[in-house]
Design goal:
Blueprint lengths: L20 H14 L2 H4 L21 H23 L7 H10 L2 H16 L3 H22 L2 H14 L5 H15 L7 H31 L2 E3 L10 H13 L5 E3 L3 H10 L3 H11 L11 H17 L5 H6 L7 H32 L8 H16 L3 H4 L5 H16 L2 E4 L11 E6 L5 E8 L11 E6 L2 E3 L2 E3 L2 E5 L15 H18 L15 H4 L1 H6 L6 H4 L14 H9 L5 H19 L9 H8 L19 H4 L9 H19 L4 H12 L7 H9 L6 H6 L4
Parallel strand pairs: 5-9
Antiparallel strand pairs: 1-2, 3-4, 4-5, 6-9, 7-8
Helix pairs in contact: 1-3, 1-6, 3-4, 3-5, 3-6, 6-9, 7-8, 9-13, 11-16, 15-16, 15-24, 28-29
């Protein structure tokens, strides 16, 4: 997953900037007059005197963020005034590039604040986010709805867009479209509506995210009778016991974080407790203090109002206008094709698990809280492989060497740990990254373990992007944030196979950022269409089951024994176990997302009932009426994947098709890797993604490679 933190005019609505210029200028004037001597020493307001210009986290106090962001907006507003009032004829350089280069101080603060707001938040950080959101929105709207500035941008677009080199054209097009998509051509009354709608939306998306995190942190299952935990492996129990001790409790604590929830659902023999934990997980932010249902309704309706204000029939049409898919018809075509291809096999998989469960004496219908438990047991019976058998070979330190080593073999990258770079939490490590010639490429931060201030999931983001300016190649500072199993008192951090593939996935995003080679920041690295951005991440997962790759690092953490060839064969054999069920699960999320964002009238119904109907065609297990996915669907309601969750399946088609080239030529083939780096990873959004893909692949993608890989064709 990509987490984007920088609030730029080139993506104003997606990143939720709002407001009006007059209010902002008054705020900025007040801030300038009242800024204290202490605030003038704010670490954000000068260049960092640190290794590689990294963020001096040890110097930053929570109180620094708000004044720094306000000062950053004031400085940015002054730059915008200069560009707008430049008496010279507008040119690409004095308008488009000047806009692109503006706002550096503001960006510096926002990258830091919003990354930490996801990875190391607090009540104080939440309050700052709530306070600053309307002001940031006001600042953004004061730019994108500046009529005089837009006239300059439009003039350049109308007279130069056909004659510019491709990268300059992409920047011009993105800038021009950002003005259009932020209401630059609306009448005054409609501009006011746009400001109002988007201001409300920014706060609601923030509220959704906060509710989801707080609801996750609010629940814990405290068991004091060990007999109730039969079936759960000892290392999982040890972690649960250490969690209980840390909270001053007796016994064992299981919560809703992935390293706790997932193994409990796989291994706990106690069906009643599995159901209890399942219901807790799937009713997060549903009812009570952190209920997100009304928030969803407001978000969906505001998105619809904004889209229709801008001339689109619904929000999906607005969002897809700047995607590879282009329109709803193409999205549904993909979803429906995959549904038709995978549904028969998915139903067979569910029937197989049901039959297997019956052989163990289970007489009821498989429910969602039974699925992981009996699936895991069937998988072990069929392939003699499970997480507990594999984890000793995926000790985190060895996996890091393996993941970094993959980048070395493919792209010649070298990783050098640097303990002198400041970090925001003791769990975080930093690495200097160099290419095969010794050229400095990036700083990489890694943050692997869950904690209460970190939201769930895994993502890649950046503290600084890449761009070139005045002959200098400004190199990026990339961050990988995970929620992996922590080490215990008796064992190091041992990853499940899913955690290992998650690491590869996010590292693929990191490579997209670290290998960026663009002139302009806003089209560099992962600044590409949402349904293209998952290609670099998902393709890397293909190496997870390749023996030639695993042989290089997967060794038993105690004995040093290399992972046995027969165990790798079992991993390969089990690779497509329940793959159709997993596909339909992803399709269900895609259908749900599209259903919410293809509404053409304001929604006023029941959120749970709507959800059950919206994804019903892709659901193969009984639906539980009391549950609700939407209220915790942060990708869609708090992230950048609204009308875009289909992107994972879209990109899966691309990654299977692209990896078929590696399979044909060799998974470490230097020529293939160089082509992928040159045409995909380094280009960012500097060209149309369909053109870039064809340049690498030599043809348009088809779903055939995916069907073959999954054993469906």
């Amino acid at each position: 997953m990509i987490l984007t933190n920088k609030y730029r005019i080139t993506d104003a609505l997606q990143k939720s900037f709002l407001g009006f210029k007059g209010l902002f200028l008054l705020t900025a004037l007040f801030f300038t007059i009242t800024m204290t001597a202490q605030e003038k020493k704010n670490p954000f307001l000068s260049e960092y005197n640190t290794p590689f210009g990294t963020i001096p986290f040890n110097q930053i106090k929570t109180d620094d963020y708000l004044p720094a962001m306000r000062e950053g907006m004031r400085l940015h507003a002054a730059e915008i005034e200069t560009i707008t009032n430049n008496p010279e004829a507008p040119t690409f350089e004095n308008t488009i590039v000047a806009l692109e280069r503006s706002g550096k101080v503001l960006s510096r603060v926002q990258y830091c604040f919003y990354n930490l707001h996801s990875a190391e938040t607090s009540d104080e950080m939440d309050k700052i986010a709530e306070t600053i959101a309307p002001e940031e929105t006001a600042h953004s709207n004061s730019i994108t709805q500046n009529e005089k500035l837009f006239e300059k941008v439009k003039l350049i677009y109308n007279t130069q867009h056909k004659s510019l080199p491709v990268e300059k054209f992409m920047l011009l097009d993105k800038t021009y479209q950002s003005f259009l998509r932020s209401g630059a051509t609306l009448l005054a009354a409609d501009k006011e509506k746009y400001r109002k709608y988007t201001e409300e939306l920014s706060l609601l998306q923030l509220q959704f995210s906060q509710n989801a995190l707080k609801a996750t942190n609010a629940y814990q299952l405290n068991i004091t009778d060990k007999s109730q935990l039969a079936g759960i492996p000892e290392d999982i129990l040890t972690a649960a016991q250490e969690k209980a001790k840390a909270k001053g409790k007796e016994g064992w604590i299981f919560d809703l974080t992935a390293p706790s929830y997932v193994p409990f659902m796989k291994y706990a023999d106690n069906r009643m407790l599995r159901e209890q934990l399942y219901m807790a997980y799937n009713t997060k932010a549903l009812g009570g203090e952190f209920d997100n249902r009304e928030t969803i309704i407001k978000i969906v309706n505001l998105r619809l109002q904004i889209a229709q204000l801008l001339g689109f029939k619904d929000y999906a049409a607005y969002a897809l206008d700047r995607r590879m898919a282009k329109n709803e018809t193409n999205v549904y075509k993909l979803l429906d094709e995959l549904l038709a291809a995978y549904s028969p096999k998915a139903k067979e998989e569910v029937a197989s698990v049901q039959t297997f469960a019956q052989t163990t004496g289970f007489t009821e219908t498989i429910m969602p809280w039974d699925w992981s438990y009996y699936s895991e047991k069937l998988k072990e019976e069929k392939y003699s492989v499970n997480d507990e058998l594999l984890k000793p070979y995926f000790e985190l330190e060895n996996v890091k060497k393996g993941v970094f080593g993959l980048a070395t073999r493919l792209y010649g990258l070298q990783f050098k740990k640097n303990t002198n770079i400041q970090v925001y939490h003791p769990d975080v490590e930093t690495f200097e990254v160099y290419d095969a010639t010794g050229k400095f490429m990036a700083i990489l931060y890694t943050d692997f373990f869950p904690r209460e201030g970190k939201r769930s999931g895994a993502w890649m983001t950046e503290f600084k992007p890449q761009w070139r300016e005045n002959g200098t190649d400004e190199r990026p500072q990339i961050s990988l944030v995970m929620n992996f199993s922590r080490p215990t008192a008796t064992t190091p951090a041992l990853l499940t196979f899913d955690e290992f593939t998650t690491f590869l996935h996010e590292f693929g995003h990191a490579l997209h950022g670290m290998l960026a080679d663009s002139e302009y920041e806003s089209i560099s690295g992962t600044n590409v269409y949402r349904d293209f951005v998952e290609l670099p991440s998902q393709i890397l997962e293909n190496w997870a089951t390749e023996k030639e790759y695993l042989d290089g690092f997967a060794v038993h953490y105690q004995t040093g024994e290399k992972i046995p060839a027969e165990l790798i064969e079992k991993i390969k054999a089990s690779e497509n176990f329940n793959v159709a069920y997993a596909c339909l699960r992803q399709l269900s999320f895609g259908y749900l997302d599209m259903a919410w964002h293809t509404q053409i009238h304001p929604f006023s119904g029941d959120v749970q009932a709507f959800e059950k109907q919206a994804w019903s065609k892709a659901i193969v297990l009984p639906q539980v009426a009391e549950t609700c996915m939407s209220v915790q669907f942060s990708h869609v309601f708090a992230g950048g994947y609204a009308a875009g969750y289909y992107s994972y399946k879209w990109a899966e088609v691309l990654d299977a098709d692209a990896f078929s080239v590696f399979k044909k030529n060799g998974i470490f083939d230097a020529k293939t890797a160089a082509s992928f780096r040159e045409n995909i990873l380094s280009k960012g959004g500097s060209e149309d993604p369909a053109v870039l893909y064809r340049r690498f692949r030599g043809q348009d993608p088809t779903i055939d490679a995916l069907l073959i890989r999954n054993g469906v064709k």
